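Lab notebook, bench 4. Still working through the backlog of constructs that have no structural model yet. Next entry is a single chain of 650 residues. Request: give me the structure tokens for it.
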Amino acid sequence: MATRDIAPQANNEGSIGTAAKKWANVQSVLTNDLTLAKQATGFTIAGGTTSKTLTVPLDASVSGTNTGDQTGGTPALTLGVANTAGTSTNFIRRDDTILAFDANNPAALGTAGPGSATVAARRDHVHTNPTLATVLTGYTSGAGTVASTDSVLQAIQKLNGNFEAGNLAYGVKWNTANSSPTLTKGIVVGGGVWIETAYSSFPIQEQMKRCVLNATKAKVYDLDPTDSINKINVAPTITGAATSTTANKLVASAETFSTKGVVAGQWVKNVTTGKRSMITAVDSNTALSVNDDIFVSGNAYSVGTANPKVDGAVFTEVPAFHYVWTEDGTNTYIIISQSPFVFRKPSAGTLVESVVHPWFNEGGVYSTAKYFSSFESVWYDTSASAYLSHDGATICAADDKAVSLPGYTPLTCQYRGTTSPNYRTLHTNFGANFHSNGFYGYEAIWILMTTEFASLNVQTYLPGFTAASGWSYAYCRKTGRTMGLGNASGSVVVDLAGLDSVLSGILTAGLYVANSYRGIENIYGHIWKWVDGANFNWIATGGKAWLSNNPAQWAEGTSTNYEDTGYQLPLSNGYTSALFPGRLLPKLIAGDSATYLCDYFYQPGASAGWRGLVSGGALNSGVIAGPAHLDATDSGSGSRDAIIGGRSAA
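Model written out:
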């Protein structure tokens, strides 16, 4: 029969075993209607109205209060900037996926994406797009060599500091396989590495300035950087207004010109119109004679504080510079710096060390600065003890002088050298340290212009007096038309109703009668200028170029004391398309006024013998003119012409 149930007398009474005596094991199928079963690891408990099973395979401790069933769910996490407790009763399973990114991409750097508002990391976290106007926090100018360990900010600080100190090498790359005259700017950084960048600071060129030198080459004073009629830091004190209209006069009835020490040679400015003219005589306390008819009654005036005519001559000071002019495949690099540097050719990888430009070692003597005439040379007539405007024909006496001064029409029609009178002697007559402008000085100025404008077409950037419809010496303008530019570069528009009325019908309104590059007036145009120290022997195969960097040894028609460059100039007229390595000498002829060097070259023909060099072109040369416009057809000792003048240097 079946086993009877064992039941207590009343509910919740009795026990099996005691605290002191326990049964070793109790075997049953159910305990309180639950099935307890051992497993290989752990145990299970199963049961319930709707049966469920608890499996415990590992050791576990359970504590705390269960307030209800805790179920997994879809994660709803918020990504924020601080830890915050949530209120959800759901838990995250280990194989859940957390939504942290939106499927939509931002429209652009710096623009929020179109995603869900709950996905803050993708929709709202926007990285600012840096622009040229972005502030460089913590920036201060520095110096030194840029290193691979530098931050971007540190590199910029060093580059800027080097520029300010004049230590950075900068220049241009000329792709000679391309006919475009536009050049590529760049700088040289640590290890001689070339970096293309459109620099806008010019440490060497920005030091160029007009000054007055006396006959011993001692500097008397610098001129005001914005107006050359004044000494630097000496502003005009004699000012007023004209009280009558008289041709070539400034009349001011309340003035005391002579009492205040005004003398001939000073300049006066018409403040109303901006025109300037040299004072030729102090007529009285109330009246001045001036070079040009620029005043009418009521015009305001100021008398300049400089007197270059009395104090010496006007030159543009040019600081010494190191340079590299080298070829690398089809690219030519022209790079300058105030300090020595090395340049690594990008293609070849070879290093090129810079050298001081030869002009600053003229005559074998190093100079920290050289002086290039600010104006075309004018005539000092020793017999008259006076500076005179030239007429384009008068032959000077051997003891006359050619001087860089404003206020006179230029001296022309003299020989370059040997045959007396000549510019070589006339320039030295001003002072033993002065001489005609030489080839290397002219080349140095061309290098400075080229590295600043980054173009071989200088006429585009600095138009000059080249567009007259014909030639006559009467069309020549007095030197000094650029006095108002000071040390700046610029061009002066023709004044057909006033100073340039003689050019009516000769030059179109709006065109130019003068230019100035950093204080050097008419570096090209107006009249041709002799260039000394360059001789060319035209043989059957071309013009053999001989150069000299020693003014004391300059002579005509000879190679004695001259260096054989090994270059032969081409036997054809035309636009220069290529230069010989490292020299401003034509190598190839091709192109036109808008391609390559954009300037023209003249040669005398095969077997023409010895010739000199003139540069720049004249007032009627047109588009063929420019700084690289060279003419090697004239004999320095046998040619003189009203269209050819000269410049001095020191």
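Notes after review: The two ends are 143 Å apart (CA to CA). Helices lie at 120-123, 152-164, 308-311, 423-428, 439-453, 458-461. Flag for follow-up if needed.
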